[in-house]
Amino acid sequence: MGFMETSTLASPWSLEGKRILITGAAKRIGRSIALHLHAKGARVLLHCGHSRQEAEEVAAACSWQGQPAPIHQADLSKVDDILRMFGEIRDTGLGLDGLVNNAGRFKRVPALEMTEADWDFIHSVNLKAVFFCCQQGAKLMMERETGGRIVNLSSLGGIRAWGDYAHYCASKAGVIHMTRSLAKAFSPKVTVNSVAPGIIPFEARNEPHVLAGIQLTPAGRAGTGEDIAETVAFLLSQSGMVTGQTIAVDGGLNLV
Ligand SMILES: NC(=O)c1ccc[n+]([C@@H]2O[C@H](COP(=O)([O-])OP(=O)(O)OC[C@H]3O[C@@H](n4cnc5c(N)ncnc54)[C@H](OP(=O)(O)O)[C@@H]3O)[C@@H](O)[C@H]2O)c1
Fold first, then answer.
1. Could you tell me the pTM of the whole model?
2. Which residues are paired to 46 by β-bridges?
3. Number of domains in the chain
4. Which atom of ligand 1 approaches the CA of 103 most closely?
5. Residue 205 — very low, low, confident or very high, per pLDDT cuts 50/70/90?
Protein backbone atom coordinates (compact mmCIF):
# COMPACT_ATOMS: atom_id res chain seq x y z
CA MET A 1 0.00 0.00 0.00
CA GLY A 2 1.71 3.20 -1.17
CA PHE A 3 1.19 6.72 0.12
CA MET A 4 -0.47 7.86 -3.13
CA GLU A 5 -3.04 5.12 -2.93
CA THR A 6 -3.85 5.97 0.67
CA SER A 7 -4.34 9.65 -0.17
CA THR A 8 -6.72 8.82 -3.01
CA LEU A 9 -8.83 6.81 -0.60
CA ALA A 10 -8.80 9.65 1.93
CA SER A 11 -10.72 11.96 -0.43
CA PRO A 12 -14.22 12.98 0.69
CA TRP A 13 -16.69 10.28 -0.25
CA SER A 14 -19.73 12.11 -1.56
CA LEU A 15 -22.88 10.06 -2.04
CA GLU A 16 -23.62 11.97 -5.25
CA GLY A 17 -23.91 9.49 -8.13
CA LYS A 18 -22.71 6.56 -6.03
CA ARG A 19 -24.26 3.17 -6.85
CA ILE A 20 -25.44 1.69 -3.57
CA LEU A 21 -27.33 -1.60 -3.17
CA ILE A 22 -29.81 -1.82 -0.28
CA THR A 23 -31.12 -5.28 0.62
CA GLY A 24 -34.72 -5.63 1.81
CA ALA A 25 -35.43 -2.16 0.38
CA ALA A 26 -39.16 -2.55 -0.33
CA LYS A 27 -40.53 -1.79 3.11
CA ARG A 28 -39.93 -0.34 6.55
CA ILE A 29 -36.30 0.52 7.43
CA GLY A 30 -34.88 -0.54 4.05
CA ARG A 31 -37.38 1.68 2.25
CA SER A 32 -36.42 4.64 4.46
CA ILE A 33 -32.74 4.04 3.73
CA ALA A 34 -33.35 3.85 -0.02
CA LEU A 35 -35.41 7.08 -0.09
CA HIS A 36 -32.88 8.91 2.12
CA LEU A 37 -29.84 7.88 0.06
CA HIS A 38 -31.69 8.77 -3.15
CA ALA A 39 -32.49 12.22 -1.70
CA LYS A 40 -28.75 12.65 -1.03
CA GLY A 41 -27.93 12.01 -4.68
CA ALA A 42 -27.01 8.31 -4.61
CA ARG A 43 -28.09 6.00 -7.43
CA VAL A 44 -29.73 3.30 -5.39
CA LEU A 45 -30.10 -0.32 -6.44
CA LEU A 46 -32.95 -2.06 -4.64
CA HIS A 47 -32.98 -5.66 -3.53
CA CYS A 48 -36.25 -7.35 -2.58
CA GLY A 49 -37.41 -10.83 -1.70
CA HIS A 50 -41.18 -11.32 -1.95
CA SER A 51 -42.24 -7.64 -1.90
CA ARG A 52 -41.90 -6.90 -5.61
CA GLN A 53 -44.84 -4.50 -5.84
CA GLU A 54 -43.67 -2.39 -2.88
CA ALA A 55 -40.13 -2.45 -4.34
CA GLU A 56 -41.48 -1.07 -7.62
CA GLU A 57 -43.09 1.83 -5.74
CA VAL A 58 -39.76 2.61 -4.04
CA ALA A 59 -37.98 2.26 -7.41
CA ALA A 60 -40.32 4.84 -8.95
CA ALA A 61 -39.63 7.22 -6.06
CA CYS A 62 -35.87 6.70 -6.56
CA SER A 63 -35.79 7.14 -10.32
CA TRP A 64 -32.76 8.63 -12.02
CA GLN A 65 -32.75 10.29 -15.45
CA GLY A 66 -36.37 9.19 -15.92
CA GLN A 67 -35.63 5.52 -15.18
CA PRO A 68 -36.83 3.74 -12.03
CA ALA A 69 -34.10 2.42 -9.76
CA PRO A 70 -33.09 -1.13 -10.72
CA ILE A 71 -34.62 -3.94 -8.67
CA HIS A 72 -32.73 -7.16 -7.95
CA GLN A 73 -34.93 -9.91 -6.58
CA ALA A 74 -33.22 -12.75 -4.68
CA ASP A 75 -33.79 -15.20 -1.87
CA LEU A 76 -30.92 -14.31 0.44
CA SER A 77 -31.25 -17.56 2.38
CA LYS A 78 -29.67 -19.23 -0.68
CA VAL A 79 -26.02 -18.41 -1.37
CA ASP A 80 -26.45 -19.37 -5.05
CA ASP A 81 -29.12 -16.71 -5.39
CA ILE A 82 -26.83 -14.12 -3.77
CA LEU A 83 -24.09 -15.01 -6.26
CA ARG A 84 -26.61 -14.73 -9.14
CA MET A 85 -27.74 -11.28 -7.95
CA PHE A 86 -24.20 -9.90 -7.72
CA GLY A 87 -23.47 -11.50 -11.09
CA GLU A 88 -26.38 -9.49 -12.54
CA ILE A 89 -24.94 -6.30 -11.05
CA ARG A 90 -21.48 -7.12 -12.42
CA ASP A 91 -23.00 -7.76 -15.87
CA THR A 92 -24.42 -4.22 -16.02
CA GLY A 93 -20.78 -3.07 -16.22
CA LEU A 94 -21.62 -0.11 -13.99
CA GLY A 95 -19.97 -1.43 -10.83
CA LEU A 96 -20.91 -0.88 -7.22
CA ASP A 97 -19.79 1.70 -4.66
CA GLY A 98 -21.75 0.79 -1.57
CA LEU A 99 -23.87 -1.89 0.08
CA VAL A 100 -26.37 -1.73 2.92
CA ASN A 101 -27.16 -5.17 4.33
CA ASN A 102 -30.59 -4.40 5.75
CA ALA A 103 -32.66 -7.54 5.04
CA GLY A 104 -33.25 -9.65 8.11
CA ARG A 105 -35.50 -12.11 9.88
CA PHE A 106 -36.94 -11.88 13.39
CA LYS A 107 -38.91 -14.56 15.20
CA ARG A 108 -39.51 -15.35 18.87
CA VAL A 109 -38.57 -18.91 19.80
CA PRO A 110 -37.96 -19.86 23.45
CA ALA A 111 -34.52 -21.48 23.75
CA LEU A 112 -35.80 -24.80 25.11
CA GLU A 113 -38.13 -25.16 22.09
CA MET A 114 -35.62 -24.15 19.42
CA THR A 115 -35.17 -26.57 16.51
CA GLU A 116 -32.36 -26.71 13.98
CA ALA A 117 -34.78 -25.31 11.40
CA ASP A 118 -35.56 -22.31 13.66
CA TRP A 119 -31.85 -21.69 14.11
CA ASP A 120 -31.09 -21.94 10.37
CA PHE A 121 -34.13 -19.81 9.45
CA ILE A 122 -32.58 -16.86 11.30
CA HIS A 123 -28.88 -17.48 10.66
CA SER A 124 -29.19 -18.14 6.91
CA VAL A 125 -30.40 -14.57 6.33
CA ASN A 126 -29.16 -12.56 9.32
CA LEU A 127 -25.56 -13.79 9.30
CA LYS A 128 -24.67 -16.09 6.39
CA ALA A 129 -26.30 -13.90 3.75
CA VAL A 130 -24.70 -10.78 5.22
CA PHE A 131 -21.29 -12.43 4.91
CA PHE A 132 -21.76 -13.47 1.29
CA CYS A 133 -23.28 -10.12 0.30
CA CYS A 134 -20.27 -8.40 1.92
CA GLN A 135 -17.89 -10.73 0.07
CA GLN A 136 -19.56 -10.23 -3.31
CA GLY A 137 -20.08 -6.51 -2.82
CA ALA A 138 -16.48 -5.98 -1.70
CA LYS A 139 -15.17 -7.71 -4.83
CA LEU A 140 -16.99 -5.17 -6.97
CA MET A 141 -16.01 -2.21 -4.77
CA MET A 142 -12.32 -3.22 -4.82
CA GLU A 143 -12.41 -2.47 -8.56
CA ARG A 144 -13.33 1.17 -7.86
CA GLU A 145 -10.47 3.64 -7.54
CA THR A 146 -12.49 5.37 -4.83
CA GLY A 147 -13.07 2.12 -2.92
CA GLY A 148 -16.37 1.34 -1.27
CA ARG A 149 -18.54 1.43 1.82
CA ILE A 150 -20.53 -1.33 3.50
CA VAL A 151 -23.05 -0.85 6.32
CA ASN A 152 -24.56 -3.89 8.04
CA LEU A 153 -27.78 -3.61 10.04
CA SER A 154 -27.23 -5.38 13.34
CA SER A 155 -29.49 -4.82 16.35
CA LEU A 156 -29.78 -3.88 19.99
CA GLY A 157 -30.36 -7.65 20.27
CA GLY A 158 -26.71 -8.16 19.29
CA ILE A 159 -25.66 -6.04 22.28
CA ARG A 160 -28.28 -6.93 24.93
CA ALA A 161 -29.39 -10.50 25.74
CA TRP A 162 -33.03 -11.45 25.04
CA GLY A 163 -34.04 -14.83 26.47
CA ASP A 164 -36.61 -15.81 23.84
CA TYR A 165 -34.43 -14.71 20.92
CA ALA A 166 -31.11 -16.55 21.49
CA HIS A 167 -30.77 -17.38 17.79
CA TYR A 168 -31.54 -13.80 16.71
CA CYS A 169 -29.23 -12.28 19.35
CA ALA A 170 -26.42 -14.65 18.33
CA SER A 171 -26.90 -13.77 14.64
CA LYS A 172 -26.77 -10.03 15.32
CA ALA A 173 -23.81 -10.29 17.73
CA GLY A 174 -22.23 -12.23 14.86
CA VAL A 175 -22.92 -9.34 12.49
CA ILE A 176 -21.26 -6.90 14.90
CA HIS A 177 -18.07 -8.96 15.26
CA MET A 178 -18.00 -10.05 11.61
CA THR A 179 -18.16 -6.36 10.71
CA ARG A 180 -14.89 -5.92 12.63
CA SER A 181 -13.23 -8.88 10.86
CA LEU A 182 -14.35 -7.73 7.43
CA ALA A 183 -13.21 -4.16 8.13
CA LYS A 184 -9.71 -5.60 8.43
CA ALA A 185 -10.12 -8.04 5.54
CA PHE A 186 -11.31 -5.38 3.08
CA SER A 187 -9.02 -2.54 4.22
CA PRO A 188 -8.00 -0.05 3.06
CA LYS A 189 -10.30 0.17 0.04
CA VAL A 190 -13.63 -0.76 1.63
CA THR A 191 -14.89 0.30 5.04
CA VAL A 192 -17.33 -1.96 6.89
CA ASN A 193 -19.49 -0.60 9.70
CA SER A 194 -22.72 -1.49 11.43
CA VAL A 195 -25.81 0.28 12.69
CA ALA A 196 -27.67 -1.32 15.61
CA PRO A 197 -31.29 -0.15 15.69
CA GLY A 198 -33.22 -0.20 18.96
CA ILE A 199 -37.02 -0.16 18.79
CA ILE A 200 -38.25 0.89 15.35
CA PRO A 201 -41.93 -0.02 15.36
CA PHE A 202 -44.09 0.09 12.28
CA GLU A 203 -47.32 -1.94 12.50
CA ALA A 204 -46.52 -2.88 16.16
CA ARG A 205 -46.47 0.73 17.36
CA ASN A 206 -49.08 0.23 20.12
CA GLU A 207 -48.20 -3.28 21.32
CA PRO A 208 -47.54 -3.52 25.08
CA HIS A 209 -43.91 -4.73 24.76
CA VAL A 210 -43.14 -1.86 22.36
CA LEU A 211 -44.73 0.73 24.65
CA ALA A 212 -42.80 -0.75 27.61
CA GLY A 213 -39.53 -0.49 25.65
CA ILE A 214 -40.22 3.12 24.71
CA GLN A 215 -40.92 3.89 28.37
CA LEU A 216 -37.38 2.71 29.20
CA THR A 217 -35.69 4.54 26.31
CA PRO A 218 -33.65 7.57 27.46
CA ALA A 219 -34.57 9.44 24.26
CA GLY A 220 -38.22 9.15 25.31
CA ARG A 221 -39.48 7.90 21.97
CA ALA A 222 -39.23 5.05 19.50
CA GLY A 223 -36.87 5.29 16.58
CA THR A 224 -37.93 5.79 12.96
CA GLY A 225 -36.64 4.50 9.67
CA GLU A 226 -35.33 8.00 9.04
CA ASP A 227 -33.27 7.89 12.27
CA ILE A 228 -31.58 4.74 11.00
CA ALA A 229 -31.17 6.09 7.46
CA GLU A 230 -29.34 9.21 8.70
CA THR A 231 -26.69 7.14 10.46
CA VAL A 232 -26.38 4.75 7.52
CA ALA A 233 -25.81 7.77 5.26
CA PHE A 234 -23.13 9.10 7.62
CA LEU A 235 -21.26 5.77 7.63
CA LEU A 236 -21.50 5.57 3.84
CA SER A 237 -20.19 9.09 3.25
CA GLN A 238 -17.43 9.42 5.89
CA SER A 239 -13.89 9.81 4.62
CA GLY A 240 -12.74 6.27 5.45
CA MET A 241 -11.33 6.65 8.97
CA VAL A 242 -14.36 4.97 10.55
CA THR A 243 -14.30 1.21 10.01
CA GLY A 244 -15.25 -1.88 11.99
CA GLN A 245 -17.55 0.16 14.21
CA THR A 246 -21.13 -0.30 15.38
CA ILE A 247 -23.29 2.70 16.15
CA ALA A 248 -26.37 1.98 18.26
CA VAL A 249 -29.29 4.09 17.07
CA ASP A 250 -31.55 3.19 19.95
CA GLY A 251 -32.15 6.40 21.88
CA GLY A 252 -29.76 5.10 24.56
CA LEU A 253 -31.71 1.91 25.30
CA ASN A 254 -28.49 -0.18 25.41
CA LEU A 255 -27.40 1.93 28.38
CA VAL A 256 -30.37 1.05 30.57
N1 LIG B 1 -37.53 -2.85 13.22
C2 LIG B 1 -36.81 -2.90 14.32
O3 LIG B 1 -37.25 -2.53 15.43
C4 LIG B 1 -35.39 -3.40 14.30
C5 LIG B 1 -34.67 -3.45 15.49
C6 LIG B 1 -33.37 -3.92 15.48
C7 LIG B 1 -32.78 -4.32 14.29
N8 LIG B 1 -33.48 -4.27 13.14
C9 LIG B 1 -32.81 -4.73 11.91
O10 LIG B 1 -32.91 -3.74 10.90
C11 LIG B 1 -33.12 -4.37 9.63
C12 LIG B 1 -34.42 -3.86 9.01
O13 LIG B 1 -35.46 -4.03 9.96
P14 LIG B 1 -36.99 -4.14 9.50
O15 LIG B 1 -37.78 -4.27 10.74
O16 LIG B 1 -37.30 -3.06 8.51
O17 LIG B 1 -36.89 -5.57 8.75
P18 LIG B 1 -38.05 -6.51 8.20
O19 LIG B 1 -39.19 -5.69 7.75
O20 LIG B 1 -38.31 -7.59 9.20
O21 LIG B 1 -37.28 -7.20 6.98
C22 LIG B 1 -36.72 -6.41 5.94
C23 LIG B 1 -36.78 -7.17 4.65
O24 LIG B 1 -35.89 -8.29 4.70
C25 LIG B 1 -36.22 -9.04 3.55
N26 LIG B 1 -35.89 -10.46 3.72
C27 LIG B 1 -36.06 -11.26 4.80
N28 LIG B 1 -35.71 -12.52 4.48
C29 LIG B 1 -35.32 -12.51 3.18
C30 LIG B 1 -34.86 -13.51 2.27
N31 LIG B 1 -34.72 -14.80 2.61
N32 LIG B 1 -34.56 -13.12 1.02
C33 LIG B 1 -34.71 -11.86 0.63
N34 LIG B 1 -35.13 -10.87 1.43
C35 LIG B 1 -35.43 -11.21 2.69
C36 LIG B 1 -37.71 -8.90 3.32
O37 LIG B 1 -37.89 -8.54 1.97
P38 LIG B 1 -39.27 -8.86 1.16
O39 LIG B 1 -40.37 -8.21 1.95
O40 LIG B 1 -39.04 -8.25 -0.16
O41 LIG B 1 -39.40 -10.36 1.11
C42 LIG B 1 -38.12 -7.79 4.30
O43 LIG B 1 -38.98 -6.83 3.75
C44 LIG B 1 -33.12 -5.87 9.89
O45 LIG B 1 -31.82 -6.40 9.65
C46 LIG B 1 -33.48 -5.98 11.36
O47 LIG B 1 -33.00 -7.15 11.99
C48 LIG B 1 -34.77 -3.83 13.10
1. 0.97
2. 22, 71
3. 1
4. 24
5. confident
